[in-house]
Design goal:
Nucleotidyltransferase, domain 5, 2 domains, alpha+beta, binds zinc ion, 295 residues, single chain, 6-stranded antiparallel β-sheet, 6-stranded mixed β-sheet
């Protein structure tokens, strides 16, 4: 297997006149390369001299304790990328979650005009891998320090929110959970455009009932008590990015809300159906404290 390199980045959100919008400008690279026993073999740590934002924000300064003076001595982004590429070599690159990869794509696009990350060939999202190994609840992303604490790693020696220390702490998590066969399933080929399409795909919740994708869905519900097919009492209404309607069961008279949520993911449409307790909504007049004058 190729050596594993764990990379962590710090960045500063700043306004770009060229983009007429905000960019997360990378200000620090930190990484650790492992030997065949998953021990740290070498480390990489460099500041990036900002070219878009002249000053780092107060929030990031507090979070990272990086100063503007330190960054002035840094290299330019593409120089750091090139040095990192030489240092990392042919490796399996890991980051804690995909936001570092998305920020790299954003910075490569800005500074080199291409959204390809020059040093990325084999990728593992270490956060997703650790969540799987820890059977962490799906749909909720685990933070690095939370994972480390759950794994009973002493976090005290690590300077949290500094790139190198975060990469070293990530390695400690990996060491606790490492299993070669399960890791293989998380290995992504980052040389293909499919990788970038998937990375940059943003899941959207579909809220237009007229959307043709929604037409073929199964909108029917069964009674949560007796399982009999239920009947819908009113029209579908949009509530919290999902559709809701009142149903009743002709067999046991149970009344309930049926809820449908549609998300368009990279893999395709995902439908979530759920049943909720029916409650009478307070009438408008009561809420406003006014007496009704309409007939
Ligand atoms: Zn029923």
């Amino acid at each position: 297997m190729k050596p594993i390199v764990i990379l962590d980045l710090e960045w500063n959100g700043t306004y770009s006149k060229r983009l007429k919008g905000f960019i997360n400008e990378i200000i620090e690279f930190g990484a650790v390369k492992t030997d065949s026993h998953l021990q740290p073999a070498d480390t990489f740590s460099l500041f990036v001299r900002p070219q878009v934002g002249k000053k780092i924000s107060g929030k990031i300064a507090t979070l990272t304790s990086i100063t503007d003076e330190e960054l002035e001595h840094g290299w330019q982004f593409m120089q750091v990328v090139s040095r990192f590429r030489k240092w990392a070599g042919d490796c399996i690159l890991m980051t804690w979650g995909t936001s570092d990869i998305l920020t790299l794509i954003e910075n490569c696009r800005y500074f080199s005009g291409t959204d390809r990350i020059p040093f990325l060939t084999d990728y593992v999202d270490l956060q997703a891998y650790c969540e799987k190994q820890m059977s962490y609840r799906k749909g909720k992303q685990i933070g690095l320090s939370t994972a480390a604490q759950l794994l009973q790693i002493d976090v005290a020696p690590f300077d949290h929110h500094r790139a190198l220390d975060d990469s070293l702490l990530s390695l400690q998590c990996l060491r606790k959970l490492y299993a070669e066969n399960t890791l293989q399933a998380f290995l992504q080929d980052a040389t293909k455009s499919e990788f970038y399409n998937r990375m940059e795909f943003r899941t959207v919740t579909l809220c237009d009932i007229e959307n043709p994708l929604l037409k073929n869905a199964d909108w029917s519900f069964c009674c949560p008590v007796c399982g009999h097919p239920a009947e819908k009492d009113d029209d579908w209404v949009m509530r919290n990015k999902s559709f809701r309607a009142v149903f009743h069961c002709p067999a046991c008279k149970k009344k309930f809300y049926g809820r449908m949520q549609f998300k368009l993911k990279y893999e395709g449409l995902s439908v979530r159906k759920s049943v909720h307790r029916f409650e009478e909504e307070p009438k408008k007049q009561e809420v406003q404290g006014k007496s009704s004058t309409s007939v």
